[in-house]
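Researcher: Here's my situation. A collaborator sent me these components and asked whether they could plausibly form a single complex. I don't have experimental data yet, so a predicted model of the whole assembly would be a useful starting point for our discussion.
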Amino acid sequence: MAAQSGSLPRYIVQRLLLIIPMVWLLLTLVFLLMRVAPGDPVTASVGGRLPPDALEARREALGLNDPLIQQYWDYLSGVLTFDLGKTITDNTPITDIIKENGGATLTLTVTAMLFALVVGLPLGLLAGRYRDTVADGGIRIFGIVTYAAPIFFTGILLQLLFLNVFSGWPLLGQSTPITEFSVETKTHILLLDAMLAGDSEAVVDVLKHLMLPAITLGLLICGIFIRLTRVNLLQTLQADYVEAARARGIPEPKVVRSHAFRNALVPVVTIIGLLIALLMSGAVLTEKTFAWPGLGNQLITYIEQRDYAAVQGIITVFAILVVVISILIDIVNALIDPRVRY
Amino acid sequence: MASIRGILAPFRETTGFARWMLLVGVVIVVFFTVLAVGADWIAPYGFAQQSANGVDFPKAAPPGDGHLMGTDRLFFDVWSRVVYGARTALEVIVLAVSASLVLGLVLGLISGYVGGWIDRVLVLVMDVLYAFPGLLLAIVFGFLLAEKIGAGVISAAGALTVIYMPQYFRVVRSSTISAKESTYVEAARALGAPGRTVVGRYLFGNVIHSVPVIGTLNAADALGTLAALGFLGLGIQPTDGAEWGFDLSRALEDVTSGIWWTGLYPGLAIVLLITGLTLVGEGLNETVNPVLRKRRLRKITVEETQK
């Protein structure tokens, strides 16, 4: 018993320590990728716009004239001290971009995840409970189609729908300019700022803007939840302890509700960890579709400008986030389900 | 012949929804393959054609009147671009999935069979690639490959290969490891079979069967990623080929003017083909995977014994 109770802290420490090599490898990968890029990043992004000596000064300032190993060291130590360098095109510190635009991405992803959970889990359980009925078929088709529809297509369809049915509904951006100016920036999360300011009109405005992007991104994730919960429930319903409950004469609805549902839902936590990567990919596309001022949108803008430094910085942040969040979810998972720890 | 019957045998045992999914999926995929192969005959115009018989196409004309699905703001015929889009999509997907399959299979077999530090390094690299958000990886690779060898089918397929290879690697590696310890492989080794023969003859056949399910599901996913790259302007350029994702990025600008046909049709094409591929994959999975499989109960006829 003593060994077992001691294994949870050990598991947590192990997982936390794993963050270091994973992040290091990802950073190395990002660095190498950005260095195999052909030509000179400064010429690629601001080539025609600055005189040659100014270009040379930019190159020197970015450390591109240093030997590769020096650049690698500067990059790694920079990340450790939360310094991700500056963009080539507009000379903005990357950390400022993260601060300014991170809040919008966070708002979008969290709301989308909540939407997916609220819609996907019940549908998945329903489909599993009534296997091979019309409801099951319908729900599975819904899940497959929402997962199959590219985010930007779902987005365009929703935009067309709202344009025609609720004319005047905001389709693009995070808020009207008035809200943006009137709400004082404190947390860089507009919704939170509006709430803190007690400005109910601004809150409604932000929520209206948030609804379509969140549904669009949420629908993608929702399909996965449906599929997983359904299969989980099917497997749980075949488990011995469920069979035992049935054998004791407990009526089927009660067996499903109090014995099967709970255990069918445990793996969902694991899946959320795996979904973080998908959620981030999805956020990039959603932000582009709805002109949502998040990190993904910034990433695409900088890619269009061939700004390697900015792309490297933003990708670095995404990489670190993915590793840290997935490992934290692993730990949460171990707390919920003792089987994971061993 | 026997092998074909071997493939069809699980299908005959499927029931209800699984069989239905497989059938509908196959029909959809075949439909798009026909579009792709016969694009030159099916499409009324070229994918970058702006006039016919000396008459310019109308700009952003609604469906009807010589243009089944209308025209877009570049004067292109939407239906022709949808048809040629199928060709681009299938080209890229076939290239990407087969490249990642071959690479993943070879590396997985080596990693699983040889073990040691090669195994450890490969696993680490693949885990890192796998952990990274797929689209972001594709964006970075697509961006770099486009700069290096020019945007086109090859660079798009290359970017997709990087994302999907780790999955094959994982599956193949783990089945190799478990098959390596089995008695028949041990027997082969005891008989003095060289490593090449063991891997090529005994392990390969044992590992390959899990690939079709991942392959079709990956193809579905790859199509979405290809469209996403096109949507972000990192995929195939409009003059090189018709690509649904790129068309949707242009359609995004049309939405506020109430132009729906430039977005709806390419979008529907993506959804249909992805759904088709997913149905095939899921159907196969339910057919092959014993956990999900539900066998059809066959009627047993008992012959009456003659007196």
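Model: Some features of this prediction you could bring to your collaborator: The first helix of chain B runs from residue 2 to 13. The beta strands of chain B are 51-52, 55-56.
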